[in-house]
Amino acid sequence: MKFLRRTKVGILRSQMRISSVMDQNIPVSEVVLLTRRPWDTAREVPDIEDIQTPWKMIKILKFITLCVVALSVFGLALCSKASFLLLITLSNEGTKTLPDVMKPVALLCIGCALITPSVLLFLKSLWKACCQTSKPPRLSTVALVLVCELFVAGGAAILTIVAMPHLDIVTNVTILNGLAVFSAFLQIITQCTAKERNKSLVPSITAVILILLGYILFLYLYITKDPTDKKMAIWVGLAVGGSLLVSFNWWEGYLRLISENSNSVFLRLLFRDTKKCQNLLNILSSLLRIVVTASVLVAYVPLNKMDWSIVKSIPSHETKIIAIIIGVQLISSALCHWFALVACKMHALRRCFILPLYLASLAVMVLFIIPVIVYYQDYKSDLNGTEINFTGYCIGVVDGRNQNLTGSVFQHLVYDVTHTLCFLDMSKILDIGILTGSAVSWWLGLVMATIHLWHLKVLRIQRTQDLLTRRLYEGTFIEQSLLLNTRYDAQIKSRMKISEAFDTTMVYLCATMWHENYDEMMNIIISIFRLDKYRPKKGQQHIDLTFEAHIYFDDAFENVEGNRGRHLNKYGQTLVEILAEVYTIFTSIDQGFFKKTQKIPDQKILTTPYGGRLVVTMPHGNIITVHYKDKELIRHKKRWSQIMYLYYLLGFKLMTKHYGKWEKGEDESSLRAHVEKEKRNTYLLALDGDTDFQPAAVMLLIDRLKMYPRVGAACGRIHPTGSGPAVWFQKFEYAISHWLQKTAEHVIGCVLCSPGCFSLFRAEALMDDNVMKKYSTKSMEASNYIQYDQGEDRWLCTLLLKQGWRVEYNAASDAYTNAPEDFKELYNQRRRWGPSTMANVVDLLGATNVISKKNPSISKLFMFYQLFALVSSILAPATICLMIAGTFTFMFEIQGSASLVLGVIPPLIYLILCFKLKSDTQISIAAVMSVIYAFLMLVVSMTIIGAMVRDKTILTPSSLFIVAMNPCYIVTAIMHPQEIQLVFYGLLYILCIPSAYLLLTIYSMVNMNNVSWGTRETKPAAGVAKPEPAAKQTNVQKAKNTFQRFVSCCKCCKKSNQPSQGGVNQKNLIPETPQPVLQPQNTIVEDVRIPEEKQKQLDIVFDSPTQSWLTQLQSVSRDMQLVEGSLDEEEESFWIELQKKYLEPLQDDKERQKKIVNDLQELRNKINFAFFILNALWLVATFTLQLYEATFSIELPKINLQLEYTGENVKIEPIGFMFILGFATSVIIQFITMFYHRICTLIHYVAFLGTETIQPKHDTEEPCLPCKKVASVSETVSTSDYNHDSDSDSDSDLSDVDLYTRSNNGGTQV
User: Membrane spanning segments where (predicted)?
Assistant: First the structure.
């Protein structure tokens, strides 16, 4: 993005020159000033709003997603309950769809529905117990949990297998709502023991009364119907007893609050065990459930005079009916549970979770009863007026039908449902009323017992364990399970004004700069000011986030001949100009049409032990600090800048204050807890000097770290910007890397590299053992220079992974950074990245056993996946050579050996030249060869397609590459609709494969010993001599110079109130700001026309021989006054100690440098020997197997282009077959994980839009203006910006330029 600044710079220069003219007593007649005109209202400003993210499309997608999720939860719950009730109906005595002798089959399916969730829980808990450290619970805890699970499992089996098959369909639908009775009772106990016990007792008490009333009506209806029927009395008693036992299932959800408000040590230990020993308890409880359910099922069948042998001889028609019903039940239950979780994570609790589940029970009732009524009424109408009651209909039609299944299965199922109602006389209003009353009472009881969910507050992408009490869902009563399993303690939390879940997050934005140009600096400064507007500090309404911005400017000083001390270089001065310019943009862009010229408040500048510091308070109160580093005072380069801010922000600012409190006598345990909490909620956002990001991207990254405490770092989607073929290649390369590779790492393991240009790190993770301390290690060996300094962000992630922290990728968080546009710069960048990546991956692979035990997110299978990826990258040059050799064989019909030699000779020559020639010459040769290989790659692509047509098969490595990768990339791009245009760059990417995977690999490996940065490096201008060393001063001269500096500094701190009467002095460098004058908005002031002789006098100011860097910067920043300050003693001593211990400039030790150079060359030679020997072995092995193809080959069925077997076999050498197998497995893994990750990203997007409401923010507060009170410089977002026309589009909530607001505590009522 190119930003134009001529307008503002012209104004600043005009003001500067006017002030200088007044100071120099230049006659006004000699100054020609073009005053501001009311008609000149046009302006040029950079884009500060989010124009990259397609928020309109995302909002439409949100609406569609919410509708789909709501319908899915409702539909799946309906299918789950309906299929389960059909199984109950089929097991009822007297139903005809399934004969009585086949009833054990229906009961077996009911048992499967009960057992399946327990089996899934057992497998999941077993996996977690094996991968994570699980503590054994106390015996008392195990006993209590198993007793409760015994009651629940026995009650569920008795209720569903024994009792419900003897009840009517209405009772079976609604009696499950009575399972909320014990939960409602525990709610009363919990609220009575809590401090807020009088606020929410009414719904819980009402729920208990309604559910008990339902049981009373149910008992009265069935027992009074036939008091002599003892069997029915037994079934009714078992139904009531079983449902009461099942209601104990969700007792754990209330244990925490009861234990916290109780003095019982046993309850507290019980809660601790259920939380920390969950995996082992789940394994035991799931096994117990399986055993109990199987025991009840096995015992009941013979007791009810049924035979299990019928299971082996079921007719095919009945088998199909049973299989469909149980299949629908199992699948719909599992999917309903997953979609319900998605609804909660998306902040759609009411619309997509509670309401659909409430309506599911009613819909099931309608689904079963309406067909019964319709069939009954149709039968009555067919009788031509003959009266018949419901009992007669049951005897004559329902029970009198033929046993054989003739006609529609649906009709027989309706008759079977009607048969369950025949026991009751539906012709009597009393029976109908009692049955309806019990059903309504149970349903209203469930609603009242879960009414607290309507006021539940959850965070975005809330963790499942924070949403649900138990991992287990109940497939036989899915809606009750989901509603009652939601954590009740979340309701208590929501009443608190500030809770642990909503602790204020402190974010430090840490950017490193070096030689960024104007546009690149403008990107990041505007991004920081955006965040200041998004989360203002003054009059702060948002308590979820506070932040500070720190920019660490490397090598910012230079020697200037004739000036005292070192001065800021041109890059440092440009940054000051940009800060002033952006400040003015953000204080004027949203004001009214007419405004007053405002003065930017004074900012602070000070000298520090490492160089200098500029502190700017942004318009809304947040602070941005620029640390100018002098490489003669402190160690330079990016990693040392990172170490500098790690120790300053985490060591000094975070820890020192707590140490001071401890010295004053405060309790150490409370201080420790406070420190741990602050470390957990403090994040560092690592940035490059050219990163462009939106506030939403930062918030999305914060969500990941806030929700998951073991996440140590999270990175966003990095978009390279720029123009030219090199950038086009990188656009597609970055896209594929993020779409497939990073998503696969995130899903099946951990991301191995969180890029330093835009990544959020947790302070607690950085301050962990063996992370920050080891990251501060100085490179002492040759391998350290490659692993530590060439890819510092990857090495930091390696340290985090080794310490057990998780690194994640968030595709919803977008950031933009400039990419190398020059071929040479791209090669030099990848020359750093390639060896560093390989070194860190090898380091991780070498510690596989330790990492897999220490890091729960990394398994040995994941490390094997990384090993395969590493081997593939190592053998990439040989694979490219084989591909080119195959082209020669196909086109020119050359023998395999000759074509292989022809394919290897050019890379071999380039390899030899790289050892002999300079780096720039190597890159020039690679550029020429890349063009040649691009044409050859085009031929290769056509050749592969031709070979597929000629051989009529796709079972070759090259064919599989084309057939698998192209559709994979296209579908992946479709799954990223906002980036689908990047597919067109894929054509260039394919042509550049030899350059990227052959030539670049050779170049990076041969130049491994070159540890220079390679990018943004500038050379001194021609003819500029190095500064001569200063002559040694005498003591008298030193004293004189010290006195002169003191007097000069005193003068710098004063402001001139009168114009100078003579020459130029230090006071003239800080002009007086003119008074505000009423003027039209957006006017442009032309340059002041000053005679040439006077202009020369003004230019002398910038060449003052006594000027220091402070006065130099003050003279540059004419529109933003810089007031000199000083560090406090504590911070100054900290910097001195830090420099002495970690950051002293490296000494120019010629002997050591010579040794390191030799060690790097020796390391390069060893690694290159192994690297290229492996490629040679791969080539030789492939060549040998091709010679003896008849002996050493694997025959596979030949498949034509229509994927049909041709009757022939194709021979593939074993190595080629392993390549096909490994490649196919890798692609499938990446493709599946991509789909899963896209769903998670969509959930996060929808949740973000649900909590960060897109609307114009009308904030009437003035921006924070420190140091002195001045007039308001910001009127906030004017309504004219968005509502300039009363006839504008009413759908303004979809505007791309709208801002985000959020509830005060970080959560939102949903």
Answer: 63-85, 105-127, 139-163, 169-189, 201-221, 233-251, 280-301, 321-341, 353-376, 432-454, 862-888, 894-913, 925-949, 982-1006, 1169-1188, 1215-1236
